[in-house]
Design brief:
heterotrimer, A alpha/beta, B mainly alpha, C alpha+beta, A: alpha/beta, Beta Polymerase, domain 2, 5-stranded mixed β-sheet, two-stranded parallel sheet, 3 helices, B: mainly alpha, about 0% strand
């Protein structure tokens, strides 16, 4: 499975153009096809290796979820991206495909407040349970006061 | 020995007890220095220059002055009693050890039996400590302790019976007398095997690395004594080292001929002490060079290896004794 | 409202569960980590891992500091391997900004990173043995030996950068310091000495039956699990996956050096130990080659840092990764053309390595929990960031 094969297959299945840049195959997906693409990446492209999942806050253009998975044998790197509608931070989960998505999605929820639908155990992971707000959002000021833990 | 035997014995017991406490204190210093050499460190140095001679005293003083913290949720009575219940058997074992001919608190005719019986009583204090602390780590440790001491008590006793069989007596002085010619450790085949098994079983009975699962500070923090502080902690520590030293004396007596050897009689007690310290250092050496093994592996070693081996050894000794007749080597 | 009386059944059949809260203050928590273990007797049946005690929100911090300021803060993510943490950040900036790095600087980065790997593995070996052997036992002996050797490398770093733990050695476009006179001779002597010591560790541990029974077959990570969770470094190589960033995506002239990537298939604690022991030796080989071939020239393609807003990066994004002692350390950087990153994502090696724990610990004894934990070699500055 080379990158060229993969991008052809992605074009056929999803009708989106996969961009090859810096050795990474970037695929921009609609939110609805996130899980479907995950399954294809896992099963057909052989991306068994889950590298990381995170998000970027594009302010009024909504949040973007990024997920990097790899096929280590074929040296194929796929970056899945999806743009969430502004004000609606919900994204389907990938935990049923890669067990590693568990902590990564929890971290993403913690930092951006993105609710991963179908995640078995979506709690805050790095911050304490009673924390208010999601620090990596751009509207969260660095000097936001917080009540110290006692 | 003109005064009444009771008074004489009381004086003797007093002397032995205090000598023992000092010895225990300095044995800890010895261990620390020895371990420091092994680990390319210096060890205690500044308290009592140049080599930390006052460190044990300073430690004892410090522990006495520490605040005695009692957890509110603990079972007070059991918790407070445990260090004493733990310490008393550890000191009592010294009652039967003769340090030279006619020099000991009580040379019972069942000396070895008394030693083995009393030394395994420490488990009661140990379990009380683990239970009374009302701490999960302590409880787990107490559970492990019971497991371990029962498993290793048996091989320990069986191996200790090998010299008893060879000497044909349970009396400590008689066992030493039987080794006048040849120490039991030099007894071809049997002696060395029995000595090694004795050391292993002793390590386990003393809860030393690699068998220190009940203290296991990287898993159970400090095991059964995690909630103890100040003087109570000191008592437990004292008991542990006294037990270790007592076992070393027993080993020196059973296998290394006690005070007997090619030297004048006055050197006997000193030689005995040196032998015991030698065994102690051997145990320490093992302690500072092994990793700890897991509870199930410890039990497996005991039941699958040590116990059958010690039984076979005991049986073989029985044959030897039957062939050449009891008493003397 | 439920008014039914709850009936508590007392079972005496030995099926009770004990909840044991290990950490965050625990002798073997390697920092601040909390595991809520559910025990059946001595056997762990469930684990809930709680992290975040050391969280400083490095990613938000990265958005508020300029490209010139942040490298020295980056070293505080993985404080045990500060060199590679810095390198990950500056690599990301260089990738997004398309900044060239002179050859000499690349070699210096390799030397620093490999020395750091040795130092970090020394710390891992020591603390791992401490977990298994106890602070008053054989473990502390290995620990003190390892610390003694690590000290020598920290001395070399001190001569190079003036610091012993958090270096600030890298800057965007190269390195901040050149090697002092005579440094390479000292480094050579250090690695020669290290090589002998590694033989000693191996003799001490591998000839020890107790060490073997404690590590072999314990904490097995299968190949599939390793990939799914995304574990990296010695963990994934111990599970039979040949994945090393230095090979998969050579950075900083790693193509120039001849070295071996050790792979073990067993996936247990002992396999991870073997991988790291070989890595010690391979690092030494790389350092020797890099010292031999150290080219002349400038150490940075950019002038030294004079003002905080000096480095500017065009609009764009990129992910750069390096192979730290614990595995892939990566930085995903989004730039909006300003002096500060728009978004910085740290992909810490320890985070995913630790995420594998809840999958492998159940079924093991309490004593194995600390052995497995130690074999993962987590650094909580990197987990919590």
């Amino acid at each position: 499975m080379t990158a060229a094969d993969a991008s052809t297959r992605i074009r056929e299945r999803f009708g989106v153009e996969a961009v090859m840049a810096d050795g990474v195959l970037s695929v921009v997906l609609p939110r609805e096809r996130w899980q479907e693409f995950g399954r294809v990446a896992r099963e057909e492209l052989g991306c068994a290796y889950f590298n990381w999942l995170s998000a970027v806050d594009w302010k009024d253009q909504g949040l973007e979820v990024l997920c990097r998975v790899e096929n280590l044998d074929a040296r194929l790197v796929v970056m899945m991206r999806t743009r969430l509608v502004a004000g609606e931070a919900r994204c389907p989960t990938l935990t049923h495909l890669w067990r590693g998505a568990d902590w990564m999605e929890r971290e993403c929820y913690d930092m951006f407040g993105i609710v991963f639908e179908g995640h078995p155990d979506l709690r805050r992971i790095l911050l304490s349970e009673g924390w208010e707000g999601h620090p990596l959002r751009k509207d969260y000021a660095v000097d936001t006061p917080f009540t110290p833990y006692r | 020995m003109t005064s009444s035997p009771v008074v004489w014995q009381a004086i003797e017991a007093f002397v032995v007890l205090n000598a023992l406490l000092v010895l225990v204190a300095y044995v800890t210093l010895l261990e620390r220095k020895f371990a420091a050499r092994m680990q390319s460190r210096i060890g205690p140095y500044y308290v009592g220059r140049p080599h930390g001679w006052l460190q044990p005293i300073a430690d004892a003083l410090k522990l006495m002055l520490k605040e005695d913290v009692v957890p509110t949720a603990s079972d007070r009575g059991v918790y407070n009693l445990a260090p004493i219940v733990f310490l008393v058997p550890c000191l009592l074992i010294f009652a039967t050890i003769p340090f030279a001919p006619e020099l000991g608190v009580a040379d019972l005719n069942i000396g070895v039996l008394f030693f083995l019986a009393v030394s395994s009583l420490e488990i009661v204090g140990l379990f009380m400590g683990g239970w009374g602390s009302n701490n999960k780590y302590a409880l787990l440790s107490a559970m492990r302790a019971v497991n371990q001491i029962i498993s290793y008590g048996l091989p320990f006793i069986f191996v200790a019976l090998v010299p008893v069989l060879l000497a044909g007596s349970l009396q400590m002085s008689a066992i030493v007398a039987a080794q006048q010619g040849l120490w039991f450790v030099a007894y071809p085949g049997l002696g060395q095997l029995a000595f090694v098994l004795f050391l292993v079983a002793a390590l386990a009975a003393e809860n030393r690395v690699p068998f220190d699962i009940l203290e296991a500070e990287s898993e159970l923090v400090a095991g059964f004594r995690v909630e103890y502080s100040g003087m109570k902690f000191a008592l437990i520590q004292l008991g542990e080292y006294a037990h270790m030293l007592g076992t070393s004396f027993l080993g020196a007596l059973l296998f290394l001929g006690g005070w007997s050897g090619p030297w004048p009689a006055w050197f006997g007690p000193i030689a005995f002490l040196l032998k015991a310290v030698g065994i102690f250092l051997l145990v320490t050496w093992v302690r500072w060079s092994f990793v700890r093994i897991r509870v199930d592996q410890i039990l497996a070693i005991s039941w699958k290896l040590l116990l059958p081996a010690s039984l076979v050894l005991l049986l073989a000794t029985g044959f030897v004794v039957a062939l050449r007749g009891a008493g003397g080597a | 409202m439920n008014t039914q009386t709850q009936v508590v059944e007392l079972g005496y059949g030995g099926n009770e569960r004990l909840m044991l809260n290990m950490g965050p203050q625990h002798p073997s928590s390697h920092g601040v980590f909390r595991m809520i273990l559910t025990l059946a007797g001595e056997t762990v049946v469930a684990v809930d891992a709680v992290i975040g005690y050391l969280h400083r929100c490095h990613e938000k911090l990265g958005e508020t500091l300029t490209y010139a300021q942040y490298p020295s803060i980056a070293s505080k993510t993985d404080y045990v391997a500060a060199m590679t943490a810095e390198l990950a950040y500056v690599s990301a900036v260089e990738r997004v900004g398309k900044i060239e790095v002179p050859k000499r600087a690349q070699y210096l980065r390799v030397i620093a990173a490999e020395l750091q790997r040795i130092a970090s593995h020394c710390l891992w070996l020591g603390t791992w043995c401490l977990d298994m052997g106890g602070a008053i036992g054989g473990g502390s002996t290995v620990f003190l030996y390892c610390m003694r050797e690590r000290e020598m490398i920290l001395d070399r770093f001190e001569e190079l950068t003036g610091a012993r733990l958090l270096y600030g050695f890298h800057q965007v476009g190269g390195t901040r310091y050149d090697v002092p006179a005579g440094w390479d001779t000292k480094v050579r002597a250090t690695v020669d000495f290290m090589e002998k010591r590694i033989d000693e560790y191996e003799a001490m541990l591998e000839g020890n039956a107790f060490f073997l029974v404690r590590t072999q077959g314990v904490g097995v990570i299968s190949r599939e699990l390793a990939q799914e969770v995304g574990v990296v470094g010695p963990l994934i190589r111990g599970s039979g996956v040949n994945y090393d960033v230095r090979r998969a995506e050579p950075y900083s002239s790693y193509r120039d050096f001849d070295f071996r990537v050790p792979v073990e298939t067993a996936g247990d604690c002992y396999a991870r130990y073997r991988v790291r022991m070989v890595e010690f030796r391979e690092s030494i080989r790389i350092i020797r080659q890099a010292l031999d071939g150290l080219p002349d020239g400038p150490i940075s393609s950019r002038p030294g840092v004079k003002s905080v807003g000096q480095v500017r990066v065009p609009k764009g994004e990129g992910y750069a990764r390096v192979e730290g002692p614990r595995g892939e350390v990566g930085c995903y950087l989004v730039s909006d053309g300003g002096p500060k990153p728009y978004r910085l994502k740290w992909r810490g090696a320890s985070f995913t390595n630790l995420a594998v724990l809840p999958h492998i610990i159940p079924g093991h004894k309490v004593a194995d929990v600390v052995a497995i934990m130690g074999s993962v070699d987590p650094v909580f500055g990197e987990v919590d960031r």
